[in-house]
Batch of 3 targets.
Target 1
Amino acid sequence: MRKILLLFPLSILIYSCAPKPYYVKPTEWKTPESIDSVIKSYSKDLTGWKFFIDPGHGGQDRRNIGIKKRVVEADVNLKVALYLRDFLTRAGAIVFMSREKDTTVSLQDRVRMATESGADIFISIHHNAQPGDPNTYYASTWYHAIEGDPRFHPCNRDIARYIQRDLAFALRISGSLASFDGTMSDYIVYPKQGFYVLRNATMPAVLVECTFFTNEYEERRLSIDEFNKIEAWGIFKGLAKYIMAGIPKIEILSDTILTTTKPTLILKVTDKSGIDKQSITIKVDSVMIPKDFITAVENKNFALILFTPNFNLTYGEHTIDVIVRNKNGNHSFPFKRKIYITNKKLTQP
Ligand SMILES: [Zn+2]
């Protein structure tokens, strides 16, 4: 009993001698008012945007535990997600969550809930592990597939880049050296498959692995509430800056039921920064239309794109698939539309 009493203060002394985890409060966090004014400054761009936040694991899935058993990944993911929801809603965005408590949610249900919510962007929040290598830690933001793969869409990488940059800065840690900018393809982990939630999400989606709970120092940072808030702040600022840079909005102006097998179709692309004409990529039934068959006419806030397939279309249904990048480097969201070629004369109603 006496021995325990002696050891107890000693253990406190040893613990308090350990170097204090280091983190930097964002410069905007001087007062509650200064935080609020930064959040409000993004509301012009974020108002009305719908985000689905998915805190990974939870409920029966609490197996990922820090190297010193100070944190459970599921709990840290939820804390960061709730802070992120707070920042986004205060900026006028609408936020849906896959879970708000320590509950079990299957991967299938996470994707289904996201689709049903009608959210514009899906963000899954996790923390990483490198079992057997306690020295490794970095921030990484993941997108689905790789360039050249039909499942890859560059808008996912755009979102990942913005989040990754501001998250890494907020946490004062680098991105992984495995990629140039810290963003990663989920094919690195599961070739040709990727992560379930990114593969099956029906909207642009990213997965954030903020840092590692298998590194002792990072685990201690993760156990501090204010640090979790800083993680959310990094993700929030990245998302806000991404939206501020604009996302080209595509519409089809021409009729989608046509009588000619070589139609000229008209698209309207709206973007405040203007579009990069060189970036226009149009596929009809997965066949790329050569640049010579595409004309873009720019107006003040929008551009008109006219294109004619360089081959005759058969009668029936066809799919057009368009990607455009704006002058800030952001790509349009996935745009696929059906057109129908009929040999019946169209009559006015
Ligand atoms: Zn995880």
Target 2
Amino acid sequence: MTEYSIIENGFVIDPEKNGIEKKSIGIIAGRLVNVEEVLEKDGHIPRIDAEGCYVAPGFIDLHVHVFKDVTSLGIEADRVGVEQGVTTIVDAGSSGWENYSIFKETVVNCCKTEVLSFLNISRKGLAAGLNELAVPADLMTVEEAADIAAREPNIIGLKARMSGSVVKQQGIAPLKHARRIADAINVPLMIHIGNPPPYLKEIFPLLRRGDIVTHAFHGKKHGILQEDHSLIPEAEAALARGVLFDVGHGTSSFSYETISQFKEKYATPFTISTDIYLHNYQSPVGSLMFTMSKLLEIGYSLEDIVKSVTMKAAEAIGNKEIGTLKHGTRADLTIFTISGEPVDLIDSEGMVITGKSILQPRMTIKDGKVVSGK
Ligand SMILES: [Zn+2]
């Protein structure tokens, strides 16, 4: 593609507007513009025909693991990124202070997908096993965090995995440490929740506005919901002060039962992410679009699920350049179709529902250029 182009005939989903509108989108020099501005250009104007497709801002997946080779679970970034219609991915804690430079060199700088990071508060990230918060001496200091965050713009937050198997005897202490670091360098925390201890009633009070709780809708015991399907008071209070819930599907962290019960009582928006890695990309996770298809089947609207992986996800990481169709912002776009072929959709608890509308990537545009599909 040349400097400018027009994407025409698509059904455009603008997360800042209501409804879906058939219209054209203009691109000049990697930026979104009005179509009229492109039409003023001389000569041949390249056009992409999106007839029968949906066009949305590039999708953002807030929770992936793409530290290939160095961590045993890392999957190739573009395979879960632009090849699946996802223009920005956030690696959630695969790397830490000690190995981020390797991550940057071998992943961030070597793929078409934009790769951001929630840096693990443990110095080795997930490179030395999956109980990275069990030894206090392994945690990075406030000074180390401040230094690396100042040097590395792609580090946009911190990750702390707060479940029993990760923290071992440390309980809530690693989260208190994470809180101190996050406050000192002013970035959001992404907290993984799973099997206690620590319990959510200890975790939630430590979270502030803008922090993200991933695996929010898992089906394990001691989750966000009580017997009567209402939120535990600590979760309700956290949502009220602006803590964000995130899906983080993963191998064992997304339950149709939990999300359905939440949906019955609460309209609070949340973000949809995959927690995709080498061992779950075939099943049960699939891809971001596959995960979105599950939420669609549960009864969320197409506009809401697109909003959650664009505008909402961009807000969560404080990025005004992406997740939007505003004039002058970066031309990252996801073009997709919805197939009516029935497909079995499995959650992390082994429950299967039949999906009747499956999102499928058609074309991915990054900085105004086609990087996947045709
Ligand atoms: Zn994860």
Target 3
Amino acid sequence: MRRTLKAAILGATGLVGIEYVRMLSNHPYIKPAYLAGKGSVGKPYGEVVRWQTVGQVPKEIADMEVKPTDPKLMDDVDIIFSPLPQGAAGPVEEQFAKEGFPVISNSPDHRFDPDVPLLIPELNPHTISLIDEQRKRREWKGFIVTTPLCTAQGAAIPLGAIFKDYKMDGAFITTIQSLSGAGYPGIPSLDVVDNILPLGDGYDAKTIKEIFRILSEVKRNVDEPKLEDVSLAATTHRIATIHGHYEVLYVSFKEETAAEKVKETLENFRGEPQDLKLPTAPSKPIIVMNEDTRPQVYFDRWAGDIPGMSVVVGRIKQVNKRMIRLVSLIHNTVRGAAGGGILAAELLVEKGYIEK
Ligand SMILES: NC(=O)c1ccc[n+]([C@@H]2O[C@H](COP(=O)([O-])OP(=O)(O)OC[C@H]3O[C@@H](n4cnc5c(N)ncnc54)[C@H](OP(=O)(O)O)[C@@H]3O)[C@@H](O)[C@H]2O)c1
């Protein structure tokens, strides 16, 4: 029998933290054992948390006291999940890795360290081997693995599946993102109610930068097409939905490509997590909807057999012989953050980087 792994959730009261608590409370072998925060330290979790997700605070968790973010208090913890805010996360995660802990981070601080994996388990699982280099170079017993920006994942998952099999020329992406993507309390209501808030050039650029890294890793050892030949552009926005980033993608190809074939490719896309039957792996990482007016954020963000873990794709149309259009919908705090982190942990356990 497998032993139960104890997890610490740093930032457990945040919007990503609550999804970790919710998902791990039903996990077959990873249990939330330590909840850490900042302003809520010393108080019972059930009293301070704003449970802005489905269900209720699990009974066995409600009375747990929120503790400080200190590795010395977590001797018996096996995995650290770190949805800490940008800036606060970086040094804390390094400290934990140095002390020997496996750290899975949803924060941006280490996403572009060349020896830190930026992991989407179905797309670039081989990048886990960067951990060996990371440990050697930094003389750490532990390590850091990151998950990409939720917005980047909503595009990278379908684009990665396409990029593997077709001669892609480029993709133009327009995002319509939910409020929870900005954490709690997030955007002032007067900026976003009755409005579409452009997120600006900086957000557009970081989205593209992460997708480029992931696509280049998807195509390892394959020269054709070269990534430098691929153009990507993004225009990002936020609107007043609660969860779920909706993205419109125009994808162009270097040769004639039929939308129907691409649709089949997306429907049949599977990765290592599905082969290994990891507990948080959805049987379909991409769900393709055929109805002309789906996916819709309200109805489809929890789709799939592991709710919120599938990217829902639809409106696949031929624009011209070398261009298709599609839309994608990702649950930003589940597949785009906590669920992606748990799936990464499960893969790290299978690959022997976290002791079973
Ligand atoms: N929201 C998303 O859709 C999403 C998706 C992908 C990645 N991410 C990333 O995940 C991280 C968390 O996002 P979020 O939306 O969950 O944010 P959030 O709702 O603002 O939550 C922040 C959490 O961090 C804790 N915290 C703040 N400063 C801290 C510090 N100095 N030391 C220890 N704990 C601290 C807070 O604890 P107290 O309540 O106790 O103060 C709270 O639990 C960010 O880096 C974000 O970029 C978010």
